[in-house]
Amino acid sequence: RERAEVVAVMDTWETRDGFDVEPPECDLTFVLGGDGTFLSQARVMVDRGVPLLGVNFGKVGFLADFEIEDVKAHWDAIASGTCVQTQRVMLDVDVMPMDTPKWDGKDVEPEYSYTAMNDAVITAGPPFRMIEMDLAIEPDVSQRSALTFGGDGIIVATASGSTAYNLSVGGPIVSPGVDAMVVSAIAPQSIAFRPIVFGADCDVWITMNRANEGTTLVIDGQQSTSIQEGQQVRIQRHPNRLQLFQNPNRTYWNTLSHKMHWAVRPSRT
Amino acid sequence: RERAEVVAVMDTWETRDGFDVEPPECDLTFVLGGDGTFLSQARVMVDRGVPLLGVNFGKVGFLADFEIEDVKAHWDAIASGTCVQTQRVMLDVDVMPMDTPKWDGKDVEPEYSYTAMNDAVITAGPPFRMIEMDLAIEPDVSQRSALTFGGDGIIVATASGSTAYNLSVGGPIVSPGVDAMVVSAIAPQSIAFRPIVFGADCDVWITMNRANEGTTLVIDGQQSTSIQEGQQVRIQRHPNRLQLFQNPNRTYWNTLSHKMHWAVRPSRT
Amino acid sequence: RERAEVVAVMDTWETRDGFDVEPPECDLTFVLGGDGTFLSQARVMVDRGVPLLGVNFGKVGFLADFEIEDVKAHWDAIASGTCVQTQRVMLDVDVMPMDTPKWDGKDVEPEYSYTAMNDAVITAGPPFRMIEMDLAIEPDVSQRSALTFGGDGIIVATASGSTAYNLSVGGPIVSPGVDAMVVSAIAPQSIAFRPIVFGADCDVWITMNRANEGTTLVIDGQQSTSIQEGQQVRIQRHPNRLQLFQNPNRTYWNTLSHKMHWAVRPSRT
Amino acid sequence: RERAEVVAVMDTWETRDGFDVEPPECDLTFVLGGDGTFLSQARVMVDRGVPLLGVNFGKVGFLADFEIEDVKAHWDAIASGTCVQTQRVMLDVDVMPMDTPKWDGKDVEPEYSYTAMNDAVITAGPPFRMIEMDLAIEPDVSQRSALTFGGDGIIVATASGSTAYNLSVGGPIVSPGVDAMVVSAIAPQSIAFRPIVFGADCDVWITMNRANEGTTLVIDGQQSTSIQEGQQVRIQRHPNRLQLFQNPNRTYWNTLSHKMHWAVRPSRT
Description:
Oligomer: homotetramer
Number of strands of chain A: 17
Largest interface: A-D, 49 and 49 residues
Strand order of the largest sheet of chain A: 5-4-16-13-7-8
Distance between the termini of chain A: 48 Å
CATH topology of the largest domain in chain A: Tumour Suppressor Smad4
Strand content of chain A: 25-35%
CATH superfamily of the largest domain in chain A: Probable inorganic polyphosphate/atp-NAD kinase, domain 2
Number of domains of chain A: 2
Number of helices of chain A: 6
CATH architecture of the largest domain in chain A: Sandwich
Helix content of chain A: 10-25%
Structural class of chain A: alpha+beta
Radius of gyration of chain A: 20 Å
């Protein structure tokens, strides 16, 4: 009964973008909407330590993987806290000020900071010329060896985000159980680029060697800020993980098959 | 000797973008610059029926495939017209007015018209949400069957352009000797998209089902115009082909290996 | 009515592999079976100049694209010869004797010769070590420049075959209207390999630099012969094209969508 | 000084395949050879808990990443045990007897068991028809949901092996620091197959729905056994990890760039 009110409050939050009302204390948060709604709420709720349950009112429902009837069917398990939850790595994305020493911003206050559930993307933007970046993974450990890379942009995704934008540029599926991030490229100039999966404890540094006027950092496809030539973006694991209720009627593998059509085979019609 | 003057005149054209001076009559045009310069001159010169010879002052030199020393070495063959030329298919790209009947613009005057040597690209642009298009190849012949397709954009490339942007999104190499175009996708939402090669006589129609404010048609990476939701773009073979001098020291295959690093293998260092 | 008898005769041919009975004269041949049956009949029938119509008794029915009800529905057009036909490029595949000069077998009698409708494939075979080949396209014209390439094998496909094995290794779809072949690689050692489409008039030469005991040339997935280290295989256009009835209810584009699931998008279930 | 003798002993092992001599106790093992030699020794040595140092006498030297001069330069660090080591996940690969219950072999003695450092591969083999498999990842947890998948074969690779065969079929690079396996496919029939990375604690079950006479399980490209229709293969983490000395002059990232040519860009020559 209490939970019914929580649902109502949630709905209110979603429509107010300013989010100036402090959400009430709760044990569980329902997110009513599509995957986009879920992402925006996940970024807000991750630090409250409250598990989320996504009810699909959108199209695909990859994160919001409960249909209304699933909520009804599993209500007792949900309410009693026995419904299975998974934990998802999220990202801290920092845009560093222009004069930050290369690959070394330990004591530098970021200009902007974001939390991401799916991905942080740098995209070329108008006038759509190729941009160029230095990518360094764990510069401290890796002796500052970097990959110089040109193209339309770069995607740093969590395992959760691996089935989103990352997949559309040829990146691999990474099961949410893997403690890793994946870097993939949008239209890389090199024909020898391959996506790379590495530990979620690594810090990733991207330095813009060449940017367009419209070059933009995009968080989960939803938030964005302009990135300048010479600027650095640092990406690392967010201190907390998101807790996510999992529909007992589905598994990760059959969601991949049924919703993403993973490995669908030729058929007669 | 005469040709030395022509070289000088060409240089002048390149620097003036307005291009209000009618170029003098000539039998051969040298283009001094990189591949970008070559593309911009090719679009201007294709209808004059004069062959182009690209001298590489840029980085890669895929189209501009003569180095200065190659010009010297083959000067006699160039001057006498016995140096091998290839012919390249180019594209007419028409942006149709908003009220054009779907896939049927025979009697409609395009709003804008472009010529492309490499490719016509529709790119999502700010705020970088996924766009959606209907793609119809030869709608008259194919009973108006279309592919609905979402992603960051679409590339319609010539064989010449197949080794440019098309290659960076996973498209195939198409030898310039093939009378074909290729359609590839930038970050397609579907994991089952594959590039497709079809005859250069086909007309391609793209209808924007969903566009962003910043959605843009880009020609050869150099010219651009805004595209609105509901608008159609038609792409077909340009009536004339570009004549292109080919460096006798190179072949298409070894340029692919040496410049693009096609099929480069792992090595000790 | 006459044609009903022809159908019966065809069925007989299919079951006898020795094929010692000369098929009767006819204006049209029905092939009853799946795509595999169609391929085997196409190789036999291409030089008789008789069009084929494939009735799908198999799984996918890409070549055999008439269902029984389609034959009934379009019987008049089929019988009167007004049903649309397409023409398909086929390949001659020659295994050269061991002492054939490299890339030069004009006056050499091949050891074995095959006709292929879909593809000629060289596959590593037991004990499954990487094989290595030199690939030369038009060695006469291209100054004998070749690509040295290691992996599990190579596929030389026609446009018809582009949607078969070629597609499964990442090759492009090539519309049957394009006068081209495509070369793609099975598990190439290089991460910078890309499939290449080139004119159907080119001759392709493959020299085995390193082979396994079990290295095999496979034609249309159906016929095969052993290939030795040092041996050359030459592939060129077959002099005749196959005539193929096309189901008026389908187009190439909607067959791609409906049977191959080309560009299928994520869905709710 | 003592270690010089160990080197000599190692050399002896390598040449004797029977391996009937018990290797002497030691603190460190040098492997002199290429990556192939390293793999074969790693499988033998992993359970002795002795770290390996690969000295490259082969071609690429990805695992054997010390050149002779690197050994000299870092001798003191190597001998004193202060040279950095990494730990690599390895695999247990079990071929189950024919009557094993599907996805449930807890109490069943495997017919054959192998240890793999890079990968376990099931390959179609003669007569090279498409094989078909059910792939289940963690069948106990995932409610026995499986992916049915046709093609030339399947690769289950460790992070170490991700840059080997897996990479050649389009799989991602997985940094050795990630506790994961990757499944990729050789020539999948589906155009919607994508490689998948999942936790190294998962058990993978492959059931052969359709096999060829020559269908073979291949371990690290070196050991092999025949696989029958209906047979199951189980793959899980090996209880011990391999300890591997890492060349202090290299990092994983620059080895990728310099040896694999990862992200190499077009160049002038």
